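Lab notebook, bench 4. Still working through the backlog of constructs that have no structural model yet. Next entry is a single chain of 61 residues. Request: give me the C-alpha cells for it.
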Amino acid sequence: MLRLALLLFLATPALANPAPHSGVAGSRSMPELSDLALFACAAAGIWFVRRKLRARFRAKD
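Model written out:
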C-alpha cells in the first residue's frame, strides 16, 4: 500500500496534462473567490471566539 502511494506521488507530475505553471505572471484585477472565502472564514472564526470569550468572562462575575 505504501509503495502504491509513493508511486502515485512520484507519477503525479507526469500525469498532469497541461503544465502546472506557464512561467508567465498574469495581472489580477480583483481578489480570487478563494481569497474572499478565506477572509470570510477568518472573520467568522474571530467573531465566534470573541463571542465565546465574552460569554465566558460575563459568566465569571
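Notes after review: The chain has a mean pLDDT of 82. Residues 33-60 form the longest helix (28 residues). Flag for follow-up if needed.
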